[in-house]
Amino acid sequence: MKEIDAARLKEIQIEIIDVVMKFCEDNGIKCWLNGGTLLGAVRHKGYIPWDDDIDLGMLRSDYDKFMAVFNAKNDRYKFVCYENDPESFEWSGKVLDTSTVLYEPNEKGEKLSVYVDIFVMDSAPEDKSEQMKMFRKRGVLRVCNLGRKLPIFLKPTRGGFLRRIAVSAFRAILRIFPRHYFVRALVKNAKTYAEHDTGFVGDFTGLRNAVCRREVLEKMTQLEFEGKMYNAPAGYDEWLTALYGDYMKLPPMEKRVSTHFFKAYEK
Q: How many Cβ atoms sit within 10 Å of the Cβ of residue 265?
């Protein structure tokens, strides 16, 4: 197998975006550039210079439709999440290019393929204290799910001997729980207000405590990303502000680094 360098990785990711966006357009599914990818489109017209992954977004109803039909119409590309793959711990989805192999964080970790993330937005309560309650619960469940997912003796990316012992013990305790126990609980928490028309949506499966008006993510515009035009929320300013605050301000130099650790190969 041939190792994939940074430039080739981005080419493959762009190919996945093109496949997903075309599929969504053909099937009446709303999908947009999200997270750091949306920020990159607005601020850099492409990847954030120190970033190397892709985020897409969907509302829950579109996400469920995509999950139900995408794999039946694709061979090379596969959508995975815990709901359709018994081996997956993913609470939000990934579209994989199965002509590649990717290990996170290295060959001793999880085996996947080069992918793009699809994050799902759920109905959010109007009350900010209720929003924070859901975000706090999400945080605990994410840590537990990650601990349940990783090999017990996989060395942490930071810390010394005592931390390694503590992390391994924590992961061993989490093996008591069924494989999908924490990811199911996390998605259930995200869907708490699924039956309520609150007028707000939030990212209750991602990393940030972001909530905005539903209408912000219901209408689309087009933004440039790496020389191509893709769907983005018409209200991207409000959504990016919810995600990052003053999103046009560059972070300090010491934070301009990738947090994505992997090894990837073409078959």
A: 15
d(CA 47, CA 201): 26
CA distance linking residue 247 with residue 178, whole number of Å: 39
Tokens 């081996």 sit at which residue? 87
- The answer to whether 33 and 116 have CB atoms below 8 angstroms apart is no
Kindly state the tokens that stand for 191.
């869907």
Task: Dump pLDDT digits (tens) for 46-76.
Answer: 999 999 999 999 999 999 999 999 999 989 9
Q: Which two tokens stand for residue 202?
A: 């939030």
d(CA 213, CA 232): 15
> Of 238, 249, 123, 233, nearest to 189 (Cα)?
123
Tokens of 214: 């539903």
Residue carrying structure tokens 């840590």: 143
Q: What is the DSSP letter of 72?
A: G
Residue corresponding to tokens 């499966």: 205
- Could you report the per-residue pLDDT of 144-174, keeping only the tens digit for each? 998 998 888 877 767 787 888 888 999 999 9
Instruction: Say whether pTM exceeds 0.70.
Output: yes
Tokens of 101: 């192999």
